Amino acid sequence: MLLFLVLGTTFLIHRIMTRKKRMRQRFFMQNHGQLLLKLVSQMADISERMILTLEELEKATNNFDKTRELGGGGHGTVYKGMLSSLHVVAIKKAKIVIQREIDEFINEVVILSQINHRNIVKLHGCCLETEVPLLVCQFISNGTLYNHLHDEALVSLSWKDRLRIAVETARALAYLHSLVSVPIIHRDVKSPNILLDDNFTVKLSDFGASRYVPTDVTGLDTSVQGTFGYLDPMYHSTGHLTDKSDVYSFGVVLIELLTRKKPVSYRSCQGYGLVNHFSTVLSEGNLFHILDPQVLREGGGEVVDISLLAAICVKFESNDRPTMRVVEMTLESIHAAIEYASSDDMTDESMDNYIRGEMMNDMSA
After folding, report:
1. Of 10, 189, 242, 327, whose Cβ has the fewest other Cβ atoms within 10 Å?
2. What is the value of pTM for the model shown?
């Protein structure tokens, strides 16, 4: 009986392990594992280490212990972990199995694996051995821009930090639009997707909805996707996605930085959303009514210039908006002028004239 019990237990364990292995293989194939293996074999800068095992991630998170949770929402949970390579990572684990979310996951892996920029979150790998894939990115310690702007404290990020964050976000988007082999439209630019590290350096994240756009076409006709309040109204009404859709969303982020108001829920006394109210008070010369008091205290003449830039970015007609490259150059010149002024005896009037001159030059270019 003892021998029978030992043999039976051994057989049962073997059968369970075999079934578990088959399930992982099935999930791997279901989650397009072969497609990703082909991808990593063709890209010199991507190694097979990016395909991580479930055991590795279970060990990194102490079997996905609740104490390792960083946060989550309706779509899933994010865990903090440490890989055997000693990289501290954020592991995204979806809660439910929806084919669209699996497709977005694969899309994010493919895009992040092919881009490398200081202001874009870095992909460490992925796990395809579970029913719902797991995405492993670098851990960004300081939360999101949204959290910093919309906490309950009277004082938020300094104006200097906000301007630098705007510059770095513009750099990341201009890189995606202009400096990769096949341009990429992010399609969900918003403050919750702008992560900040310990030095408040921008790390743009969440590329699940992003799309490649070949250089020989002007856009894509797609199902509308994005976040209310940041969503390009032209794209919403036509379903035609272009790089100017990201420009619009970035313009909303600029307004958010200037006003410290939430684009999703803001309503003026007249019932206007944030973009319409901002554009109205700017055109009426009453900008101070909507600006964050901290921006009024800490900012100078550049606040008006950035407000004008934001207003151009959120024009209804996409053709009336600048490209992200022009937006980046404009912000860079404004930021450089302020840095120069702070280290010299430049007068406020001459600094204002310099900023406006540079902005007009970049816009005309």
Report:
1. 10
2. 0.82
Residues with catalytic annotation? 188
Per the CB < 8 A criterion, the answer to whether 267 and 278 are in contact is no
If asked whether residues 271 and 323 sit together in one domain, one would say yes
For the chain, 365 residues long, the average pLDDT of each consecutive 10-residue run is: 73 64 62 56 54 89 90 74 90 73 75 88 85 86 94 89 97 95 92 94 91 79 89 94 96 97 91 93 93 94 95 96 97 89 56 46 45
Both 227 and 322 in a single domain? yes
Cα(197)–Cα(148) distance, integer angstroms:
12
Q: Is the domain of 46 the same as that of 192?
A: no
User: 274 with 194, same domain?
Assistant: yes
Let me know whether 185 and 319 are in one domain. Answer: yes
Instruction: Describe the crossing of helices 302-313 and 274-283 by its angle, rounded to 10 degrees.
Output: 130
Q: Which string of DSSP letters, residue by residue, matches 196-247?
A: E-TT--EEE---TT-EE--TTSS-EE----S-TTTS-HHHHHH-EE-HHHHH
Give the integer Cα–Cα distance in Å for 60 and 340: 46
Are residue 100 and residue 229 in the same domain, yes or no?
Answer: no
Are 250 and 360 within one domain?
A: yes
Q: Tell me which residue range forms the domain holding 326.
A: 145-364
